[in-house]
């Protein structure tokens, strides 16, 4: 009887041992523990020549720059990371889910602009602080403290779903349209969640649709200090080119910025 009462209080129905849907229709799947290489690898600079003091050039730096110019420096250095098992929401937070918790709908892409009911489109035009307030209220509704924004390493690990390529499906940009809404197919708007293919861990729209706030602050490289006045967004959105929907790409805004390409999804501690 006690278990039934507790379940009613949490209003959470378990779908299986590794997934569940909460009281407002947010579905989560278990992300397994594991390790991965976070970020993007650069070409080896071991063979770069030493600087010649008798020329006006810096031969060493020129060589290094040529081998790293195609990589965003904030994705470097690539490094091994271990992630403990946690739950990740299978979709971005929708406008309906936001409304059930917050009682409003701040999204720019609503019925008047889209021409159809927008309740299953991702909520956007929300700041990092707004997302944190949503987390606070949802935890109170469900009598827990386990809902949260994912960390940056959790997000990339979940997005890759075991892939070492640019995207969850590998390196072929020709396949991106099967998984993502981005500038090439979005028609300058968001789309209902879960209409594209999921990655192998059952997560939809990890590439494109809206950029997703994570809990982490921005760093110029993974070895540099944290800029607390900037928070990281991942995954790219409907406005971005294919390159900016890659698993390793990092974007950042001030935590009080609100844009029509910025939303989020939640993690839940086990």
Walk me through this protein's architecture.
This protein has helices at residues 2-10, 59-68, 95-102, 111-114, 128-141, 152-160, and strands at residues 13-16, 19-21, 27-31, 34-38, 79-83, 86-89, 147-148, 211-219, 226-234, 250-253, 262-263, 267-268. It is of the alpha+beta class and 270 residues long. It has a single domain (2-37, 80-268), classed as paralog of FGE (formylglycine-generating enzyme). The strands form three sheets. The chain has a six-stranded antiparallel sheet with strand order 1-2-3-6-12-7. A four-stranded mixed sheet has the order 10-9-8-11. A two-stranded antiparallel ribbon has the order 4-5. A hairpin with a 2-residue loop joins strand 1 (13-16) and strand 2. The radius of gyration is 20 Å and the shape is globular. The model is unreliable at 1-16 (pLDDT under 50).
Map the helices and strands.
Blueprint: H1 2-10, E1 13-16, E2 19-21, E3 27-31, E4 34-38, H2 59-68, E5 79-83, E6 86-89, H3 95-102, H4 111-114, H5 128-141, E7 147-148, H6 152-160, E8 211-219, E9 226-234, E10 250-253, E11 262-263, E12 267-268
Parallel strand pairs: 8-11
Antiparallel strand pairs: 1-2, 2-3, 3-6, 4-5, 6-12, 7-12, 8-9, 9-10
Keywords:
paralog of FGE (formylglycine-generating enzyme)
Poorly predicted regions are 1-16
CATH topology, anyone? paralog of FGE (formylglycine-generating enzyme)
Helix-residue proportion: 10-25%
What Rg do the Cα atoms give? 20 Å
**N/C terminus separation:** 23 Å
């Amino acid at each position: 009887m006690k278990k039934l009462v507790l379940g009613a209080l949490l209003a959470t129905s378990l779908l299986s041992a590794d997934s569940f849907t909460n009281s407002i229709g947010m579905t989560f799947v278990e992300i397994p523990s594991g390790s991965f290489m976070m970020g993007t690898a650069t070409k080896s600079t071991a063979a770069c020549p030493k600087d010649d003091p008798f020329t006006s050039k810096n031969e060493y730096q020129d060589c290094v720059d040529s081998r790293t110019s195609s990589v965003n420096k904030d994705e470097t250095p690539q490094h091994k990371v271990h992630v403990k098992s946690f739950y990740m929401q299978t979709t971005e937070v929708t406008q309906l889910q936001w409304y059930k918790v917050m009682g409003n709908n701040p999204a720019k892409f609503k019925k008047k602009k889209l021409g159809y009911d927008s309740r299953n489109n991702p909520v956007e035009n929300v700041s990092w602080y707004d997302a944190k307030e949503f987390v606070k209220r949802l935890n109170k509704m469900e009598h827990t403290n386990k809902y949260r924004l994912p960390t940056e390493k959790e997000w990339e690990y979940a997005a890759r779903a075991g892939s070492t390529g640019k995207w969850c499906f590998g390196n072929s940009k020709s396949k991106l349209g099967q998984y993502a809404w981005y500038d090439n197919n979005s028609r300058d708007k968001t789309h209902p969640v879960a209409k594209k293919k999921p990655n192998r861990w059952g997560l939809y729209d990890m590439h494109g649709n809206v950029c997703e706030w994570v809990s982490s602050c921005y760093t110029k490289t993974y070895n540099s200090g944290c800029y607390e006045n900037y928070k990281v967004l991942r995954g790219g959105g409907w406005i971005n080119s294919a390159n900016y929907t890659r698993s390793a790409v990092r974007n950042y805004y001030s935590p009080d910025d609100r844009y029509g390409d910025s939303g989020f999804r939640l993690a839940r501690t086990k």
